[in-house]
Specification:
It is a single chain. It is built from 14 helices and 15 strands. By secondary structure, the chain is α/β, with parallel strands linked by helices. The chain folds into two domains: about 10-250, 3-Layer(aba) Sandwich (Peroxisomal Thiolase, Chain A, domain 1); about 260-410, Thiolase/Chalcone synthase (Peroxisomal Thiolase, Chain A, domain 1). A ten-stranded mixed β-sheet has the order 5-4-6-8-1-9-15-14-10-11, with helices on both faces. Strands 2-3-7 form a three-stranded mixed β-sheet, covered by helices on one side. Helix 10 crosses helix 11. The longest helix has 16 residues, at about 70-85. The two termini are about 25 Å apart.
Length: about 425
C-alpha cells in the first residue's frame, strides 16, 4: 500500500429504499422506527413480505429508456443522478473520462430472463417473440453501463458481483481506483432488483430461509430476535459520489465522511454458512487499515439478515472483535427494510452516516425477545439513542460463498 495514501471522501449520496427516496427521508424513517416492508404478489408463490421502492422512475429517464432498460438500471440511474446533484456537481464542466462507475450487485438478469420465458410460454415458446433487448439487459455490467449512458460518463464502468457483500465492494473499488489515480471521481455503491424475480423467493423458501407472510409484514424482518425466521427480500439502491479529499476540499464540497479503511476476504468454507473467524479477521483488517482500535468505533452496522444461524455466527465474530469496547453501539437496518441484497451494505452505511452530525444512533426494530446467542453489549433496540457526535462507523456486509466485506467510515477530519 502507498506509504502516503490519498484520503477518500464521500461528497454525495443518492438512494432509494423501501422507506425513503433520499437520505433525509431514509434517516427520518430509521429514527422514527418506520418500516418499509409490505407484501408483494409474486409469480407462482402468492403474497410474500418484501421491501419495494417507490421512487419517481421518470425523473431522470424517458419512457423509451425505461422500457428498454432494467429495473436495476433504473434504480442505479435514479441513485446516480441524486448522488451527483447532492454533491453539487456540474457534469458539463467535468472531464467525464476521468469518472468511474462501480456498482455492486448480488445477481443480475434473472428478472428479465424469468419475464421473457414467461412471455414466450404464452406463444408455445416460439423464440420469435423473444425480445431483442435481452442481451444488453442481462450482461453483468448492465446497471453501471446504464448509468454511463444516462450521464454521458466515458470513464471505466463495471459491476462487482459480490453477493450480499456487494454494496461495500462497490465503495471499496472506488476508493482503490482513486488511490491508484485511475479516476478523479467515482459513483459507487450497490443496487438490487431482487424482488422482481420469483426465483430468489423460491430458493430461500426451499432453504428454509424465507420469512413467511404474517399478519403484520412490517414485523417480518427481525434480526437477533428469538422468533426470527428468515430473510425479507427487498430492492433498493445507494450510490455515493466519492473523490479524493484534497479535490473535494479544493472545490468546497460538503464532506459526509472519509472512507478510512476497508477489507474483503473469503471464508473458503461453505456455500451458505458463515465462518465467524473469517468475519472477525475481515473486521480487524479493516480497522488496521483505518488506523483504529476496536474501542474507537462508535457504531457497528451489523449485517444480520434474521436467519437463525447467520445472526448467531456474526454475533460470535462481533463479540470477539469488540469484547472490551463498552462505548461501541450496534444496530441493524435490515429490521426496517429487509435485505436489499447488493444494495444492503451501501444503504446501511448511508443510514448511519448522519450520526456524525446529529449524534443519534438508530435502533434495531422488531427485537421483542433477544436470542441469548445474539447478545451484544451496546445493542440499540426499539428506540434511537442520543450519544453525542460520533467519530467512526464500521459497516459489515457478508455474502454467500463466504465473501466478507467491511468498510470503516470516519467523521470528516481537519
Amino acid at each position: 500500500m502507498n506509504m502516503d495514501p490519498a484520503r477518500i471522501a464521500i461528497t454525495g449520496i443518492g438512494l432509494t429504499a423501501p422507506n425513503g427516496n433520499n437520505l433525509a427521508e431514509f434517516r427520518a424513517s430509521l429514527l422514527a422506527g418506520r418500516s418499509g416492508v409490505g407484501t408483494l404478489e409474486t409469480r407462482y408463490m402468492g403474497r410474500v413480505p418484501a421491501g419495494a421502492c417507490r421512487f419517481d422512475e421518470l425523473r431522470y429517464q424517458g419512457r423509451k429508456e425505461l422500457r428498454r432498460g432494467t429495473r436495476a438500471g433504473s434504480i442505479a440511474i435514479y441513485s446516480a443522478n441524486e448522488a451527483v446533484r447532492d454533491a453539487g456537481l456540474d457534469l458539463g464542466a467535468l472531464d467525464r473520462s476521468r469518472m468511474g462507475v462501480y456498482i455492486g450487485i448480488t445477481e443480475h438478469g434473472n428478472v428479465e430472463t424469468e419475464n421473457e420465458i414467461h412471455n414466450i410460454s404464452k406463444y408455445n415458446y416460439d423464440t420469435r417473440f423473444w425480445t431483442h433487448h435481452h442481451n444488453p439487459r442481462t450482461v453483468a455490467n448492465n446497471p453501471a453501463g446504464e448509468v454511463t449512458l444516462n450521464l454521458g460518463i466515458t470513464g471505466p464502468h463495471y459491476t462487482l458481483g459480490a453477493a450480499c457483500a456487494a454494496g461495500n465492494a462497490g465503495i471499496i473499488q472506488a476508493a482503490q481506483m482513486l488511490r491508484l489515480g485511475e479516476v478523479d471521481m467515482a459513483l459507487a455503491g450497490g443496487v438490487s432488483e431482487s424482488i422482481h424475480t420469483f426465483g430468489i423467493f423460491a430458493a430461500f423458501k426451499s432453504q428454509g430461509a424465507l420469512a413467511p407472510a404474517g399478519e403484520d409484514p412490517a414485523k417480518a424482518s427481525r434480526p437477533f430476535d428469538r422468533k426470527r425466521n428468515g430473510i425479507v427480500v427487498s430492492e433498493g439502491g445507494c450510490l455515493y459520489t466519492v473523490e479524493r479529499l484534497e479535490d473535494a476540499r479544493r472545490r468546497g464540497a460538503r464532506i459526509y465522511a472519509e472512507i478510512a479503511g476497508w477489507a474483503m476476504n473469503s471464508d473458503a468454507s461453505d456455500f451458505v454458512n458463515a465462518l465467524p473467524e473469517r468475519q472477525a479477521e475481515c473486521m480487524r483488517l479493516a480497522l488496521s487499515r483505518a488506523g483504529l482500535a476496536a474501542g474507537e468505533v462508535d457504531i457497528v452496522s451489523s449485517h444480520a439478515t434474521a436467519t437463525p444461524q447467520g445472526d448467531v455466527q456474526e454475533c460470535k465474530a462481533l463479540r470477539e472483535v469488540f469484547r472490551d469496547c463498552p462505548g461501541t453501539r450496534f444496530n441493524n437496518t435490515k429490521s426496517f427494510i429487509g435485505h436489499a441484497m447488493g444494495a444492503a451494505g451501501a444503504l446501511e452505511l448511508a443510514g448511519n452516516l448522519p450520526s456524525f452530525d446529529d449524534g443519534w444512533v438508530h435502533p434495531t426494530i422488531n427485537l421483542d425477545e433477544l436470542d441469548p446467542e445474539c447478545e451484544l453489549p451496546g445493542l440499540i433496540s426499539g428506540q434511537p439513542v442520543k450519544v453525542g457526535r460520533q467519530r467512526a462507523i464500521l459497516n459489515n456486509s457478508f455474502g454467500m460463498l463466504g465473501i466478507n466485506s467491511v468498510v470503516v467510515a470516519v467523521a470528516p477530519r481537519v
